[in-house]
Amino acid sequence: MDIFSGQVPDGLRISELDSKLRNGEISVREFVRDLASSDIYRRRFYTPYPNTKVIEFLFRHILGRAPATQGEIQQYNKLLADGGLKAAVDEMVNTPEYAQYFGEDVVPYRRTPLPAGNYLGSVKAAADLVKQSWSDMSPSAIARASANAKRCCD
Q1: Which fold, 10-153?
Q2: Which three-class secondary structure string do you get for the chain?
């Protein structure tokens, strides 16, 4: 199972982390923390994007929802700027909200529908995030495909 949507290609798996979880050496919560702080996650969901998109990914992947307010975005933007990805991930995994909904052993899941009034919470935003799974194309390939589709249909 892939907690961050889609199937994880073998080349992107962190076998040591998988083994620790399977052997009961770490909780799901620690697995989520380590995976979302990993170099693979960093390359796939952090480096290619501006902080606001990274924050959106983190909220969806770790808390199962979109950011609810500009205040949340500002808080995590500051964390990313001051402490980097690991600081933002640690903060999110340590929230009372994470503990309440997922505890130590529940895999994060999408908890809320995307109402039209929610910040970044449109149907288009949900569709865009679905594209961002481990098995999808790289961001540059997505941009090329989008450009080709525009040329085709204009």
Answers
A1: serine acetyltransferase, domain 1 (1.10.3130)
A2: CCCCCCCCCHHHCCHHHHHHHHCCCCCHHHHHHHHHCCHHHHHHHHCCCCHHHHHHHHHHHHHCCCCCCHHHHHHHHHHHHHHHHHHHHHHHHCCHHHHHHCCCCCCCCCCCCCCCCCCCCCHHHHHHHHHCCCCCCCHHHHHHHHHHHHHHHC
